[in-house]
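Students often ask what a holo structure prediction actually looks like on paper. The answer is less mysterious than it sounds. You provide the chain, you provide the ligand, and the output is a string of discrete structure tokens encoding the 3D arrangement of the protein together with DQA.
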Amino acid sequence: MPVPLIAVLNGPNLNMLGLREPEIYGIQTLDDLEALCAEAAEELGLAIDFRQTNGEGELITWVQECRGRAAGIIINPAGYSHTSIALMDSLHAVDLPVIEVHLSNIHQREAFRHHSYVSQAARGVICGLGFTGYRLALQAIAEIVEQEA
Ligand code: DQA
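The corresponding structure tokens follow.
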């Protein structure tokens, strides 16, 4: 059996982790997050393609490229969660299990963060658990992929 490939896609400003509002997002960096995901994926028997972009179009292109290539998508759409119908449409179009992750608890924050278009296309949503949320998302997607193989 080939190792399932999971795309771990990160949206705008997540390249600033460690510098950006550390009281909300912590002091660890995107490289630290990638290392955590790589370790968790190895333990779970998954391969990951971990990426970050600030561009909405690029994020949508990456989602589209997952069709026929990846077994599932973990996405932190960052600010585009709350604005992008196009990103939501792309996630519907690929017909793959999607888990949405946010580091912070978006429901405890400003009202404009309470709604995510991406949630419409997500099997599940994890928020407020920091980097642990990505580890849990990888665990969940490993189970989904195995059950649906
Ligand atoms: C975020 C929450 C979003 O509201 C925000 O725009 C981000 C990060 C999070 O991981 O908590 O950039 O997705």
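The domain at 5-148 is CATH 3.40.50.9100 (Rossmann fold).
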